[in-house]
What does this fold into?
Amino acid sequence: MTAPSSKAIRPPEPPRIGVRIAGTGHAVPETRLTNEDLSRTIDTTHEWIVQRTGIHERRVCNPAKGESARSLCNAALRDALADARLDATDLDLILIASVSGESRVPSVACRVAADLGATSAGAMDVIAACSGFVYGLNIGHELIRGGSYRNVAVIGCDVMSSIIDPLDRRTVILFGDAAGAAVLRATDDMSKGILAQSLHADGSRWHDLYLPYIDRDLPEGSNWQEGPPGCLRMNGREVYKFAVKTFSELISETLEKTGLKADDVDLFIAHQSNARILESARERFGIPEEKMYVNIDRYGNSSAGSVPLCLSELRDQGRVADGDIVMFVAFGAGLTWASSLWRV
Ligand code: UT7
It folds into this structure.
């Protein structure tokens, strides 16, 4: 038997394709839940929450008004498509980062594709909790750069109010609901796209932040007295330590891959986990306040929704200029963490 000719199986030349963020959008529920509101139902105060987290209020979905992960994703994606001047039928793929969709099967992405009429698009959810949007951004970018896809929508959305015990003061003060979307497009301008990126996971620490439904989801020694099924459990202190360490390491590691310095980055768009975590990274690298966006005071920690919500608000405010160097960083349950350094 003769070996196949190497000529016959030679792979195609790598395509020379840039990737740009052509449009962004976001959606948040109407209902505001303030710290004062929370202090009427749980043992907490506005002062404690602001001092420990920087949060003043968060948004929460009202299912009776039809608000859900799906409705927020639909609104954010419509906005992003209009901004990109594209129709839903132009999309090749929809990636939705979420851990709080209405159902596990089908994915939220399939429902959103159908709602918007994205009839030519593949659709799937990405499960990486708070890191999910940055995971999706890196995946979507590489699929376009590989040459087989031209228009990819990446959405980050979490309705944390649907997976939180409203009487658990360790979590209910922190989280909120939001969605943000970005439409990525192929471009001939090779200078645009990701300069460096990373995806990380350490599943051995799953029990620091997890969502149990049945007995097998519980860590050894834990039980249902600690909280009801279907409600997120968080070891806040451990996650806090992990986040402070990881945030700095992610920034250093990503900069090192390019030879750039923190000073060269025009904007840091970080997961809004806790204002103190953002502040510690800002101080460590000497990043001026205006270069690290913070909106956690208004929305709380919206998990996968937080990074694209920041991006969309910044673009609406005209603060993302053509050619800017922008670093996205996020960390969360899994444990997972990820970065994405762009020339936009
Ligand atoms: O986005 C995904 C990843 N998640 C995060 O990044 C969250 C990371 N963790 C955090 O942001 C912080 O751990 C929290 C904001 C959740 C909590 O702040 P902390 O400074 O770590 O508080 P703690 O859990 O160490 O609790 C300190 C004290 C405790 O009382 P004792 O034991 O010292 O008497 C708690 O019982 O504060 C008490 N406490 C509260 N007091 C008033 C806990 N929650 C509350 C509350 N109001 N809501």
